[in-house]
What does this fold into?
Amino acid sequence: MHFEITDFIIDIVQNSCEAASKLVAVELHESAYYIDVLVRDDGKGMDDREIARSLDPFVTDRHKHPGRKVGLGLPFLKQAIDQSGGSFSLKSEKGKGTEVAFRFDRGQIDCPPLGDVSGLFLSILCLPGGQEMTIERTKTGLSYVLRKSELAEALGDLEHGSSLVLLKQYLRSQEEG
Amino acid sequence: MARMTLDELRALRESKRQDLARRDVEGKDIQIIVGMGTCGIAAGAKLTFDALVDSIQKHGLENKVLVRQTGCMGLCYVEPTVEVAVPGMPVVIYGKMTQDVAEELVQKHLVEHALLNNHIFDRPAVDIVAKASNASLGGAEGSALRESPKGGK
It folds into this structure.
């Protein structure tokens, strides 16, 4: 089970990046009461049967890991939400894309800690795959938008140590406002 | 700290580039790949990734190292896992590579070119290697170092 909300987000974003998508949109909104997250992609999507199966921890598509019998990303998230009284929605259409939206209730004692947000963005912006990614972030008194293509253009790439060091610095300055 | 703009980020990159010319020689770079599957994330791979970037900067290696992420390498029981490919050294997959060990990894493997004991877990497990000749691989438990195993990812 993941410890922090940012860990759940990486897991879901990674699914989107591996779903043959061209655009992955991530939103993270934080208020005094709730943490709202949205991850939307225009990748391969799922039909109704696959949607149901994706929430079963003992199911995986077996394409990525032939012979493996478990897939835990979405089930972990669903379980954490169920345990802490938040909300969760999963919409998907075959060939069109998938949208995962969830809310954690910060007033609930079982709500996981949010975790390091700039570290989350560093990690998801550097996930492999050529797709565009947009990140919308709001919290009290702060809001910013990140675009992977812009950052990659400004830095030259998103994998050299030198780019990552600067990207990290940039993301931290955005988060600190 | 005031929020940085994209233009400031570009300017910063330019100023750093003058200090040290980036080597664009393909195949000469050190490559570090962090396993960012569900298992890795649960074990703190995000913190490891972050710590590696810090450590690379600390040792002034940022112009020589590529840091990438991949999914699960099949060694879920020793996450976080990190694959390190230094030219002239065998490719090694390290396990139990939590953020506090990341610094040691950079110091030992990248700077001193020595291997890190007790963290070597060889190659991806057999169920990850798609077309593996299963009989000859002998599972993931062997920790004897072989030359460049490079499983499927």
